[in-house]
Amino acid sequence: MNKSKYEIELNSLGSTYKWSLETDIGRLKTAVEASLDFPIIAIGSGGSLTVANVISLLHAKFTGQNSCYMTPLEFLITYDNISRDVGIFLFTSGGRNSDVLSIFKEIVYREPCQITVVCGTKNAPISNIARKYKHIHFIELENPPFRKDGYLATNSLLAFSTILTRAYLSIFDSNSSLPPSLEDLLYDGGNFSEYLAGLTRKLRPLLTKRSIAVLYGGWSRPAAFDLESKFTEAALGNISISDYRNFGHGRHYWLARYGDETGILAFVDSETIELAKRTLDLIPPDILTLELSTNYDGAIGCLAHLCNVLYAVKIAGDLKGIDPAKPGVPKFGRRLYSLRIKTSEMPMYNLLSKSWNRHLVAVLRKVPQIYRDDKLLKIWIKAHSDFVNKLRRVEFGAIVLDYDGTLCDPEERFQGPSDEIIGELTRLLEAGIIIGVATGRGKSVRRDLQRKIPREFWDRVFIGYYNGSDIAELSNSKHPIKSKDLDPTIESINEFLEDSWLRDICKWEVRSYQISIIEIKKPFTVRRIRNILADLIRQEGVQVLESLHSVDILAPGTSKRSIVDVIRRICDGEVLCIGDKGKYPGNDYELLSETYSLSVYEVSPDPDTCWNIASPGYRFTQATLEYLESMIVKNGRIRFKFRGVKNERHTS
Fold first, then answer.
1. Is 0.85 topped by the overall pTM?
2. Is the pLDDT of residue 348 over 50?
3. Among residues 33, 92, 344, 370, which is most buried (max CB within 10 A)?
């Protein structure tokens, strides 16, 4: 007997699971870590919606943050303007789904704090868009052992769900490991044919029913949703799903009317075993009920439930004479699948669909919700125009830039500035401009810049080491000076930290006027440690500021603005400041409170300065480069000629 296409796909699950255990998840783990402080929105269509369901559950369970999963259309309708303090995870198996492609740029234009795209196919259409934005975590599955899924998601679903589970466990429960094989995940002892035969005997009576009510709770939620999705998409049966308690709010009435035609399938795990028993004990005895459980709890149990669903679909397909991987899609169905979302047809979306408008983009970075009030929106658009016009009128003799996140991308901070950034800095230096670099770091910055900037310009480059507490020319290799005595305030704070519980989760470096928390044990994050320290350290004048990767505790009077004061005394013209963390308690907050300042990421609410006027979706060095390229130098002075956004006007 010839095997169905679906059965052939299932035969690859073992190798897919093994690959998922062994493949490198470093970049995915980095993306998850970048979202630990924020709620997430997970987006997917079809089988990828189940994956979105999985990560939303993982994120909520492990981080305590709110999370949700939704389709692309739900995202557009629900989030016509999202808070920037949110992470977006977008899943696509083939990378060419019309709904995903329709909204991807719109997600980018909304500029959430973090965007991750996980694609199951190399060099897919979505990759061409994602790679335009350097800050996006774009992850392609590297050489998976399976080919493209058929009509239903199978191997891609298992691969995505497994690597996501590995990523969260590695951060929050490093002592926990996934079973070494698919067989170990699914059953104890015996062989696979015995497992499948047992599952078939258990499910067959239920699958003959006209309708099945599926009950879930806790970690079985994705499995229940995936079962409904696959049964509906392949026309295998009529399924309704509900958590155990919502079932008690009226859904039970279906059993009262059609109990003889309906069965109950209950997903059971350690979190719901008692509730499941009490619920099923109340079901009339003449209604067929079946419990489907696993040998594992938590996130691993979630994977096991999903695998059971994949095999339950095979059993249902065999019973109905349908190949779930190739059920035969009608012509109208193919047309429905190819239908594109047109944001121009959605009245509630008209404003944000014009996010190519640089006024609106910049304003929404300042005050995300202001667009709902026409009067206030006009006020802020005028403030933006006034600021840009002010930039165009002023001549600058120097610029001061933050280092990490501004001259170097966050994930490349130890490699030094890119050749493109160095090229623009060199162009300005050749024209006589003075350049300052304000950083929380020490000699590593000097070494990086000496390696990349031509020696002839070193005397025109000033570095404010350790947040401006030690300032010297790039040519002066004696700086930063480490032999200075500790500031009394810094010394007392260091003694406090040495005796505190923070020693078990943090590592720090002590300098004369600052303490830098440089290593934080997960799942603690920079933001959480900063908040803890700000609460514990209450000394007058002491600042506790955060960058993307560290927390700096600064002695009274220590500020990045110190280098601006030094350069202002020696340069001819005004000083323009550029940084990435302009929103308090960001470590560029004071630097970007200068009269003329631009941010490449976060902004303060000050209408007079600290604006981010980069193109939609640009941040960090991509925005810095755009700013630098907009600087025209004549007679040793910079004129800022902002050319407008580079992104093309959005079309659907």
1. yes
2. no
3. 92
